[in-house]
Task: inverse folding
């Protein structure tokens, strides 16, 4: 079992819903929350992938549930939230990690292509945030909401205009709800991972020359790991970050800052 920065038991007895929890950064966050004692509900579209992730979590000793959900459908999202509370008795954390993206020249992007990404990244994140926020208000014990964004939300990101626009919306939503919902005891933050070594991202640097080119743009000279993303997320979700609200926490080895003409 990997070690964690925060004391074991920090999140004992609490429930977290992690969308996109079947793989990649979402699963890394679910694993770290589990190590800290949380019960984890992972949600995603693909039942088999979710079940495999649930079993991996359970092998590490985490209490895990897998609930197949398409976050683009508000009724499925409501069912996810209701079932999570029925089965675990609580709802303390939502992690919005589900996303969809593809590289395309903007002039070739169809309306359906735009909608496929925006409906997942922006609308789906809102449906989950709304349903969980309302449930946390009803239960009356506060909560924490954390979304996974990307620095191209503010730098721009050629060939990913759909995802760029949607992630920028999620950043704006994070800062807005952090203010509106603080008096319910709900903190709303985001993490902003840089290039992270996941199965989903690896095809982007399958060519060794491309891997070299990408790593050269990252001041620390390597990709991030899902464990590093999980630890940053856990900090923001823990009481150690009780005064952190509306923050977008960048974990990218300095990648987005390295844009000077001489770099
Ligand atoms: C152009 C594309 C396309 C592509 C889909 N479309 N893929 N257009 N190039 N590569 C268009 C389709 O032609 C269609 O439009 C519309 O998008 C909907 O496609 P569907 O496949 O029907 O949509 P759906 O099944 O809902 O799939 C959603 C998706 C898909 C976002 C398109 O890629 C997906 O589910 N991805 C989830 C996994 C994922 O993306 N992970 C990476 C996220 S993080 P038409 O007009 O033909 O009907 C990540 C980090 C790295 O990527 C970031 C690097 C920049």
Result:
């Amino acid at each position: 079992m990997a070690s964690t920065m925060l004391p074991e038991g920090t999140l004992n007895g609490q429930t977290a819903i992690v969308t996109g929890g079947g793989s990649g950064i979402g699963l890394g966050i679910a694993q770290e929350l589990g190590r800290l004692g949380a019960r984890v509900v992972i949600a995603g579209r693909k039942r088999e992938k979710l079940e495999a992730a649930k079993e991996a979590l359970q092998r590490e000793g985490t209490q895990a549930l897998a609930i197949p959900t398409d976050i683009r459908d508000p009724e499925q999202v409501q069912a996810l939230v209701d079932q999570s509370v029925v089965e675990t008795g609580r709802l303390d954390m939502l992690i919005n990690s589900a996303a969809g993206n593809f590289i395309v020249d903007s002039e070739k992007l169809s309306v359906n292509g735009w909608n496929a990404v925006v409906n997942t990244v922006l609308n789906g994140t809102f449906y989950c945030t709304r349903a969980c926020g309302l449930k946390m208000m009803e239960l009356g014990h506060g909560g924490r909401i954390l979304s996974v964004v990307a620095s191209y939300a503010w730098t721009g990101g050629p060939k990913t205009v759909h995802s760029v626009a949607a992630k920028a919306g999620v950043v704006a939503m994070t800062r807005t709800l952090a203010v509106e919902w603080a008096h319910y005891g709900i903190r709303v933050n985001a993490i902003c991972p840089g290039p992270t070594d996941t199965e989903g991202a690896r095809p982007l640097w399958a060519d060794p020359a491309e891997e070299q080119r990408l790593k050269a743009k990252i001041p620390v000279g390597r990709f991030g790991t899902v464990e590093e993303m999980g630890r940053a997320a856990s900090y923001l979700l823990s009481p150690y970050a009780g005064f952190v609200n509306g923050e977008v926490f960048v974990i990218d080895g300095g990648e987005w800052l390295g844009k000077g003409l001489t770099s």
Notes: The CA atoms of residues 184 and 210 lie 47 Å apart. The first strand starts at residue 15 and ends at 19. The radius of gyration is 18 Å.
